[in-house]
Amino acid sequence: YECSLQFLVDDVMSPHYVLAQVDWQNAIFLRNDIAQKIGFPPQGVDAQAAYDKGYASRPDRRQRIPWGKATEHFHAATNFGNLMEDVLRWFRTPLARRQNALALIGCKDVIAAIKEVSL
């Protein structure tokens, strides 16, 4: 929770697991051998497409996950050239630092938990 999905896909779960889907704020991974047996592509599903389908494009996400309001404006971005600059500027604000201190801890907790499981 609160960890970059793309970071999990590329750097934490690979090469033993692939992304199968995103369901709200849950990323579902499958072991490579199982994923291939049931027809998933070897690289799994695209993280951005899975995030969009399983979270960002769901019409009731604002009601079901109200704590995501602080970053909601990133979903509506149309100028992707400036998106990273906007994200970095937002993270430097005092409110963002307070809200995302837990996000950084959350990502560390996810990585620690994964390392405890035998891959």
Instruction: Report the β-strand fraction as a percent range.
Output: 5-15%
Q: Name the helix and strand elements from N-terminus to C-terminus, one letter apiece.
A: HEEHHHHHH
Report the C-alpha radius of gyration, rounded: 16 Å
Strands side by side in the biggest sheet:
1-2
| Major sheet size, sense and barrel closure | 2 strands, antiparallel
Q: Please estimate the helix content.
A: 40-55%
Q: Which oligomeric state applies?
A: single chain
What would you call the shape? globular
Q: Give the N-terminus to C-terminus distance in angstroms.
A: 20 Å
- Counting H and I runs of at least 4 residues, what is the number of helices? 7
Global structural class: mainly alpha
Number of strands: 2
**Can you give the mean pLDDT?**
75
Low-confidence stretches: 101-106
Question: Which keywords apply here?
Answer:
119 residues, 55% helix, 2 strands, two-stranded antiparallel ribbon, mainly alpha
Q: How would you portray this structure in words?
A:
With 119 residues, the chain is mainly α. The protein has helices spanning 5-13, 32-37, 47-56, 61-64, 72-75, 83-91, 94-116; strands at 17-23, 26-31. It has a two-stranded antiparallel ribbon with strand order 1-2. It is globular.
What's a quick, concise take on this entry?
It contains seven helices and two strands.
Write the layout of secondary structure elements.
Blueprint lengths: L4 H9 L3 E7 L2 E6 H6 L9 H10 L4 H4 L7 H4 L7 H9 L2 H23 L3
Antiparallel strand pairs: 1-2
